[in-house]
């Protein structure tokens, strides 16, 4: 497996409205997508775009707010009521090859491969196996190779 670009940093927030205001007013962000619900992932999502090098997309900040009581980030927000850095997401060219790579190293994969917010397959690796970082692996969107 070859590690790809850092696609996004997931930031869990208790209030999407307040988080977007923070990125606009405090951080000076101008490109923020409208929030949308992903009930199958148990989160509301919005992306803050940062500039990349010429002609490339920059790493995004993925704002995630819990959606429903069974949200996978409900426990994180309960422990961190002000929110906080939640996960790092790296791109790979082939999601199944990446899954096999981490499985062979005995890393715990959290649930099935599913479709993420960018419309490509993703999976998560347990933070206790990954230097304390919840790690998301996503297949690079077609056309970005
Ligand atoms: C928007 C869609 C998608 C995308 O396309 O990008 C997303 O990003 S969705 C993002 C939300 N979804 C997920 O996070 C799915 C995977 N996560 C999980 O399965 C769980 O959240 C978890 C990682 C297993 C944690 O479950 P939880 O019940 O909240 O906590 P535990 O008490 O079981 O935690 C065990 C242990 O791990 C520590 N922990 C928990 N979360 C994190 C974290 N984000 N980063 C680092 N460490 C974390 C937790 O503190 C516990 O440690 P100890 O207290 O030392 O036991
Ligand atoms: Co993510």
Automatic annotation (TrEMBL):
<comment type="similarity">
    <text>Belongs to the methylmalonyl-CoA epimerase family.</text>
</comment>
<keyword id="KW-0479">Metal-binding</keyword>
<feature type="domain" description="VOC">
    <location>
        <begin position="5"/>
        <end position="140"/>
    </location>
</feature>
<protein>
    <submittedName>
        <fullName>Methylmalonyl-CoA/ethylmalonyl-CoA epimerase</fullName>
        <ecNumber>5.1.99.1</ecNumber>
    </submittedName>
</protein>
<dbReference type="InterPro" id="IPR037523">
    <property type="entry name" value="VOC_core"/>
</dbReference>
<dbReference type="InterPro" id="IPR029068">
    <property type="entry name" value="Glyas_Bleomycin-R_OHBP_Dase"/>
</dbReference>
<keyword id="KW-0413">Isomerase</keyword>
<dbReference type="Pfam" id="PF13669">
    <property type="entry name" value="Glyoxalase_4"/>
</dbReference>
<dbReference type="InterPro" id="IPR051785">
    <property type="entry name" value="MMCE/EMCE_epimerase"/>
</dbReference>
<dbReference type="GO" id="GO:0004493">
    <property type="term" value="F:methylmalonyl-CoA epimerase activity"/>
</dbReference>
<dbReference type="InterPro" id="IPR017515">
    <property type="entry name" value="MeMalonyl-CoA_epimerase"/>
</dbReference>
